[in-house]
């Protein structure tokens, strides 16, 4: 006779989340995610960007990636109109920049943490890696969008420890798996 798994106990009332939006928000806060910044220019040539935790590789050949964003986000009009974006992979040394790029849109490019890069797009300084990407598809889903990009170029900075977003804060993992 095979092994019969034990029944999983029902969650206590304190652990149960009753509505869909709360369940989604609370659960995803507990999912640690890598941190990146997506930058582009708006149609008037102003730098725009945002901190993202939704970056994912899609295929190696051709090199495709995706990121998600709300279509109500202040950077959406620029991303919706963009031909190219720069994806910046952040490290522990970029914690402050992650906060700046998730703050008020009008303050995201104040300071010397960036310079014009390929196609004049905002290129963040001192990041572990960056990729120039051409937008190939935008898929509207409910109030959000899945943006598919093809990587065309990139560069490496110095090595750095990872940074993750978890429970509404940025952390550097310290315990190896």
UniProtKB/TrEMBL annotation:
Residues 28-172 form the Flavin reductase like domain. The keyword Thylakoid does not apply. GO terms for molecular function: FMN binding; riboflavin reductase (NADPH) activity. GO terms for biological process: pyrimidine nucleobase catabolic process. Keywords: Oxidoreductase. SUPFAM superfamilies: FMN-binding split barrel. It holds the Pfam family Flavin_Reduct. SMART domains: Flavin_Reduct (SM00903). It comes from the Bacteria. Signal peptide: none annotated. The keyword Oxidoreductase applies. This is Flavin reductase family protein. It comes from Schumannella soli.
């Amino acid at each position: 006779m095979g092994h019969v798994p034990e029944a999983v106990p029902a969650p206590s009332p304190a652990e149960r989340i009753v509505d869909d939006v709360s369940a989604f928000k609370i659960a995803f806060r507990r999912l640690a995610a890598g941190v990146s910044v997506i930058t582009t220019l708006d149609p008037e040539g102003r730098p725009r960007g945002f901190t993202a935790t939704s970056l994912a590789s899609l295929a190696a050949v051709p090199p495709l990636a995706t990121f998600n964003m709300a279509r109500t986000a202040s950077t959406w009009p620029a991303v919706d109109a963009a031909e190219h974006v720069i994806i910046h992979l952040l490290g522990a040394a970029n914690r402050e920049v992650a906060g700046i790029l998730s703050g008020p849109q009008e303050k995201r490019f104040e300071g010397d943490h960036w310079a014009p890069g390929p196609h004049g797009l905002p290129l963040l300084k001192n990041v572990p890696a960056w990729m120039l990407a051409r937008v190939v598809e935008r898929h509207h889903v409910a109030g959000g969008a899945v943006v598919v990009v093809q990587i065309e170029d990139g560069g490496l900075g110095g090595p750095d420890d990872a940074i993750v977003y978890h429970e509404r804060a940025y952390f550097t993992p310290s315990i190896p798996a």
